[in-house]
Design goal:
Length: about 650
Amino acid sequence: MNQTPFGDLDDYFALQRVSGLAMSPDGSRLVTTISELNEKRTEYITAVWELDPRGLAPARRLTRGAKGESAPVFASDGDLLFLSARPADDDDKPPASLWQLPAAGGEAVEIFAPPGGVELVKTARAGATAVVRTPLLPSARGIDDDRRLRQLRKDNKVTAIVHSGYPIRHWDKDLGPAAPHLFTVNLAADHPPSDLTPQPGGSVRDADFDVSSDGSFVVTSWKRPARDASEHSVLVRIDLASGERTVIADDPEADLWSPVISPDGSAVAFVRESYSTPDVAPRISLGHFRFGENSSEVSADWDRWPASVTWSHDGDALLVTADEGGRCPVFRVPIGGAVEPLTGDDYAYTDVVAAPGDVVYALRSSYAAPPHPVRIDKNGTVGRLRCIEQPKLPGTLTELTADTPDGGSVRSWLVLPESEAPAPLLLWIHGGPLASWNSWHWRWNPWVLAARGYAVLLPDPALSTGYGQDFIQRGWGSWGRAPFDDLMAATDAACSHPRIDATRTAVMGGSFGGYMANWIAGHTDRFDAIVTHAGLWALDQFNATTDAAYYWRREMTQEMAEANSPHRAVSAIRTPMLVIHGDKDYRVPIGEALRLWYELLSESGLPAADDGTSPHRFLYYPSENHWVLAPQNAKVWYQVVIAFLAEHVLGEACELPETLG
């Protein structure tokens, strides 16, 4: 077995994981969070660590709570705020509350502990103000009354929810009866937190919001009910002193997200996502306005989709990340000026924070490196900050480009194992579908398979981001055509590589990738095995059962869904399939897997025998969601996938783990 951490699943899951960045207003302090397994190896515990912005001193751990800490932000005076759920004698599973760690030293103190927990906190750069998002029950008259009502439901074992609108679920969460509110917290005085959004309904659920530097107002995305049981997101300004709420941006043809307020408080930048139709794909662009003026598009001719946006420290430009050709660079975008790339390496950047002196900090990752903090100087020089040790990889990463049948091209990353012998090939298909294989994944990590001798192909077919609007449009509303053609072209190119054994191949995909795996199963016999995770199978039933049905209905008509539904080709499936699904997946509901499994065994070209035996397998998770997040369940995921591939691709017997019973 390979000697890197990827060769042993216990070693792999024990690797520390870095996420998030926060910087103090004066730029002197920088923190991140690092997660590691608990002693039982059943849960990741996250702690806050301080980094040296100069990159000289090693990282230093700041928090050590038994259940961990998350979402750190700095207050204007340098105190550190974070969220933590700390068990008490009367409650061993409390929700997360807001804590404050003084800059001058000492122990952290709890400053806000609403009964529904704190979901998110943002602070003012120059004012003693924090704004938090916390859920309250709809009839609660305040925090204390919310606590009473929650205890009433708990004591009576009531879990029922009455809905009057849509949506009612989101990813893996049942929505309601509580709804998120925004509260302001005065960090300098002992005043009770104030509710900024009484009776909000679902308006600020998962809302992006920002606090002005002086702490006088907040700008937030705000969801409104819209026609055909849909939602429409506008931008709202809320005065923190009076609670007065004003709609400041509303585009009837688009949702507006991710508002960020300029350092001087005079302007707002945001992300605009146009509404799609079955014929026209959505477009994501940058918007901007000064208070009292109309909004306008920033760099309208830039053919890329912004993934994140923040202001430079002095407010003279926007710092934007956007997918581009299998990477996700940082761009500098002056208001009214041309887009300027700030980074040009083979990495994807997230969590961008601006510091004084035109210095930028961010997390950076790729398929060659897990997320790690870096400093980006004004001239684009990127330097790593001291944090955790990067793991040794069991192979190499290269890049391929293939010609497509319509005269275009499709690019891919190709992970190759250490051995020089021709390797069996795994085609991995990303989810989304509006996404790109451009950053490190802990759940879908190709190096775990490379350590076992496989090559892994990571293509960006039609519908992928980072190649322009036309590339997305090629696959819009016709998932089974251009994306399928691109995947086959990429596979052909990989199979011609001297390091690939083209006689041993398999397909794996999750979500949209699972859809494509299902589609491939009914349209070619070239692969030896297929793994479909949380995949769409019957688009007729998926239509109204997914958690955001209105979005899906903008994408395909009933006729388009019928033409692109994998279940129509079930009789042509002759390849062994491993079906994987979590019962708590509301984005791709469990009904997709249940129907696929039954029809695979009863109607496919490789049905179950009369004695009930079958080469197909169904890995079912009663307690997991779209992703399978619990460490030991994720470990089983890899173990079952590895065993299934060994049997059908390598021709080797491989036992399933004892934990399956």
